[in-house]
Design goal:
alpha/beta; Aminopeptidase; Alpha-Beta Plaits; 399 residues; 27% strand
Length: 399
């Protein structure tokens, strides 16, 4: 591609990036399909990491492997000093059976790239291909991060522990979005998604016969009351203008219809965007557990774990990304609603100014959702995502 660079005018950045993306579009669709055929779940991304490393080597990009256990990091060094921009993609798949019937469908039972991380990885590889050809014109450095275990919410923490954020000044990431038409982008101001906290509650009563409940303390009745009261956290403890969701996703007690068990176990999650809502929700959960235990004369053990924080999209990074997309592609970036889902890119974003771009990936005539066994993102989203992120990074590092 060096000939391609020299054949363009040095000031025609838009056409140069467009040409580089066009010339390599088929290659990175093929790489996406190779990743898709061999999905690997959290911290098992050995073949995926090997393909990423192989591709980086073929592009002449220096790289490191084994970062965050199975992560890969590529390094592009500009010819002039300047800041370092990190661009992050996730690599892991989901433990589910694919039902698309595509010729390049998963060959691994109960494994599928149903969230589009294959799209993300191939996009950031393509961004690397473009920026490597532009390194002579960069005032700063690019760090390409291919992260394991996003679905398990553990890979970012592992990579940070291995030093992936050292020397980083800004960070970008992407997520494909099937609700957005291909060729368009979603822009979220402020908190882009949710903090993800988890709780385990063990209600300890007194077992007995179903015919004599007065001689027992029924943990199932207590759990039912507890679940109902937990829903008042959102309506009565959290400010109405803030976002919060409390969900009990698992409840288990007893084995027989005529025995009152001694224990009932509940598992759930709290999602919130604003720090004040997060604190209020945790306080409310603890208070309700204590109150119900007193009311029913039972025990109530709570284990509460704070997970990843929400991603806070930096205003300056957002504006620069929108301007870059407008310059490179056109007026195709629109305000979009936040998500209540979790994302451990937040651990990187809380350290440096960051922005996560939503890349439209819907195919015409389809209404797929991520985490579905029939999910089929439009592969053209790879080229559009590459155009947007390559131009944004170039502009961030323009001398």
């Amino acid at each position: 591609m060096a000939d391609t660079v020299s054949s363009h005018g040095v000031n025609d950045v838009t056409s140069l990036i467009a040409s580089l993306v066009s010339d390599n579009a088929a290659r990175f669709i093929d790489i996406r399909r190779r990743i898709h055929e061999h999905p690997e779940i959290a911290f098992e991304e050995v073949k995926t990491a090997a393909l990423v490393a192989e591709t980086l080597a073929s592009l002449g990009i220096d790289y490191e492997t084994g970062i965050g256990r199975t992560g890969v990091v590529g390094h592009i060094k500009g010819k002039r000093p300047g800041p370092t921009v990190l661009i992050r993609a996730d690599m892991d798949a989901l433990p589910m059976q694919e039902q698309t019937g595509l010729p390049y469908a998963s060959k691994i039972p109960n494994r599928m790239h149903a969230c589009g991380h294959d799209i993300h990885s191939s996009t950031v590889l393509a961004v690397g291909a473009v920026l490597k050809q532009l390194e002579e014109r960069l005032a700063g450095n690019v760090r390409l991060v291919f992260q394991p275990a996003e679905e398990a919410i553990g890979g970012a923490k592992e990579m940070i522990a291995d030093g992936v954020m050292e020397g980083v000044d800004m960070a970008l990431s992407l997520h494909n979005r099937p609700e957005i038409p291909v060729g368009q982008f979603g822009i979220v101001h402020g908190y882009a998604n949710s903090a993800v906290d988890s709780f385990d509650i063990t209600v300890r009563g007194k077992g007995g016969h179903a015919a004599r409940p007065y001689a027992a303390i029924d943990p199932i009745v207590m759990a039912a009351s507890l679940i109902g009261q937990l829903q008042t956290i959102v309506s009565r403890d959290v400010r109405a203008l803030d976002a919060c969701v409390v969900t009990v996703g698992s409840i288990h007690a007893g084995e027989a219809r005529n025995i009152i068990p001694e224990v009932c176990e509940l598992k759930g999650t709290i999602r919130s965007r604003q720090p004040e809502a997060r604190d209020a929700a945790e306080d409310g959960l603890r208070r309700i557990c204590e109150g119900v235990a007193i009311s029913f004369r039972a025990g109530c053990d709570l284990t509460y774990k704070r997970g990843t924080p929400p991603i806070l999209n930096n205003d300056v990074m957002l504006e620069k990304t929108v301007n870059a997309i407008r310059s490179q592609i056109g007026d195709v970036a629109y305000d979009y609603e936040p998500s209540m889902g979790g994302e451990d890119f937040a651990l990187m974003a809380e350290r440096v100014p960051s922005f996560r771009l939503l890349v439209g990936s819907s195919q015409p005539g389809r209404s797929d959702k991520v985490h579905s066994p029939i999910y089929q993102p439009d592969e053209r989203s790879i080229a559009f995502g590459t155009l947007a992120l390559a131009r944004t990074t170039f502009d961030l590092l323009a001398p």
